[in-house]
Design a protein that fits this description.
Length: 470
Amino acid sequence: MKGKLIHNLSANTLQLVVNQAFGLLIFLALSTGLDKNTFGQINLALAILLAAFNILSFGIDQVIIRQIASGETPASLLSTYLFHVIISGLVFYTLLLIADVISPQMFGDNKLLLFIGVGKLMLFISTPFKQLAAGFERFKVLAQMSVISNIVRGLALLVLFLLHSLTLSYVVFIFIVGDAIELLFTIILFKHQLKIPIAISWDSKQYIHLIKESVPQIGVVVFTSALARFDWIFIGLMISSVKLAEYSFAYKIFELSTLPLLAIAPLLVPRFTQLLKEKELPIADLHRLLRIEMIISTLVALLLYLCWAPLIDWITAGKYGTVNANTILILSLSMPLLYFNNFLWSIGFAKGRLKIILGVITLTFIINVLGDIVLIPLFKNEGAAVAYLLAMLVQCVAYLKKNDEKGLSTIWLSLFWCIIGAVIAGFIAGYVLQNNILIPLLAVAIYLIALLFTKQLRMSDWKNIPSLLN
């Protein structure tokens, strides 16, 4: 079991490293090769499409993982989910086409939403195959399915960037081709590696059952999807494409820096589900796991902020570094909250407490939207970052209040002490030193000393984590 965890974590981490590396390559090529206005328009279209297709999943993707882990029949689940994504995806894109015919000016002259939407529709159709692979914990296969699009797009955009031939038309074409190749590659891998029959059929009884089980999760997905990109859409529509370009650059790098969370998060739900089937959750091991997550997340957040301005200004020739310094500081403070919230969400989801999760996510969404509406007009990008931080803080408090595991009642102390340690370390290092290279080194040293002093850093934690699976 321990070997399986290491194998799954390694495969998932490799997939994330490749995806994030090529995602960063794509992002840097677009942000430095295109003007801010065009870059902002692309990100606005991607934000709208990402939110739309996430909502169209109805939360079935997570339910599928849990059902596979619980022993449900995979072939019928695949058939039902495929039917859902194809029908809902085609209906959505048809509505986009109708809207364009009725009001051509709605999507602008370049029709970015329509063209990029073709590729995202194909990626949406590939979702059921990937979710079944995740449910079976076939993370090596999932990794192969998930990297091809970014590799194709990254290499093609790099060539165009080096040739100084990067244009909006080429970018859109590359996006569509990359997504089409990933869909084809995913189907081929699924057929040959998982060997589950691929069929699309309408089983009304099973579909209704699947939707009923997903009902609480539908609300979670709607609010989570809107939460993830509402600030992008609001800035792009209400402020300007230029400000969206700046904010989306900072937010994208912030997302890339959550790589450790992305590596471990997909492993938690199926593992917690299996543990709950066998026995109660091992509280001591959960405390250890969370402490390690908090240590890693606050360390990454600390380094992200301290290295931001000099490094990003050097990479982007002064376009996105200093201008985003305050924004990235605020976003960095929310990083450990993301880890903490995902940890408690995973436990709640494994227990099937979907109604409680829906309530927490709804509250989070309301706080974020109200914060964006009030703060973005006043403080622009910094206002969006503050609204997001407040929403994550409220979500954290809500999950703690709804927690029904008595052994986890003090779990918030790890979050508190790690954040305090990182803030103190960053302040002292910045106050004592003026050298941009030495500041992060001193800050890390002070941070580790603070963790030892508050007993958050314990050598026994790292040795005993594998017992979570025994």
